[in-house]
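Troubleshooting entry. Yesterday's outputs looked truncated, so today I'm pasting the complete records for two proteins to confirm everything comes through intact. If either block looks cut off, that's the bug. Protein one:
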Amino acid sequence: MIRFTVAQKAERAALIERLDEALGDADRAVQTYNDALDALPTPTDELEAVNEAIEAWNTWAEAVGDTAADWFDAASEAWQTSPEGEAFQRWVASLEGACLDEIEAVVDSPDHLYAEHCDVDLPELPNPPEAE
């Protein structure tokens, strides 16, 4: 083989065109994916609102529990040891256990895609060297 044949040159040109089209399609698909990913909302404001509501609940439960505990402590010992007093004390304890933990916001978002080597520069292939 001294030179590329006409058929080889045509096949090479068709392969270059196929590669260019495939690379262009891949690049557009990756860009479309990344654009859609950028448009996704993150629920950080909503999660922050949940934690604020939890904090308000905890403040209320602690305040009611403290008030009830003070009221219980001020009651007579006879009432405290009565069935009503014991039931009241269990209720106060349930208020102490009613505090909620804040939600830890762990939002795993997908990563952007990057197509490496999408810019393929095909070398110009010279004709084979002449036989000596």
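Protein two, checking that the full record survives here as well:
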Amino acid sequence: MSPNRIRNLGIPFFFIPGQTTEITVNQEKNGVLHFTYGGVAAQLQRYLNSNIMLQEIGFFRLYSFKGKVAELAKEMDKVWNDLMLRISIVAKRDNFTPIEVQMAVAEANNKFMACVDEFGTVI
């Protein structure tokens, strides 16, 4: 399956250089897709299926922030704390392994910094 087709289906995945990423996609009669991961991705299956929604947690607050620049650091701290709380809740609920928690924190860091970078060009 092409990377564009995978992106259009909304299949969460990642690549590790030198490792094989296996994804099996099954579609039920009602159209619901189920993803099964093999290879190194199997270690992160709960994380990839968790719908952790880190992009949505608090970033809207940064994008819609109307305060003074001096207040921005406080708001950024609140957003980061909300991200860590969300990871903690989902990790406990879905029984994440340590590597799944590590990937969730890495994703949060990546998305948070992308948001801050984009926000920085606006102020």
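Both blocks look complete. Sanity check on protein two: The radius of gyration is 17 Å.
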